[in-house]
Design brief:
With about 110 residues, the chain is mainly α. The protein has helices at about 5-20, 25-35, 40-50, 55-70, 80-95, 100-110.
Length: about 110
Amino acid sequence: ATPRERAEALCDAGVQAMRGGRRVTAAVGFFVRAMRADPASARVIELASGALARRRPRLLEKILWRRLAVLPWEGEHRDAARAAAVGLEALYRREIRDRSRAEIMRKLTRTLG
């Protein structure tokens, strides 16, 4: 299997674990493993953000900041870095409510294209 296929399978497992809400910790593990399997995938970050924002906003915040810290912000990883910034902006606008951080992420998102 390719890294992209492996990441998609891990995301599917994460989404399934979130159903019913009892296996949130397992879901987080699947999403983090998916991000490692295909670091350039924006889709993995988008799926994780959508699944975890309401149930575990602070944990998602930590995961997305770590993604931004380790990913190059150009080349094939640019879309993944942008997805992390978009996810953080959404968190700061809704679940965590921090206007200044939301504005910083909006500017970063615009910079990343």
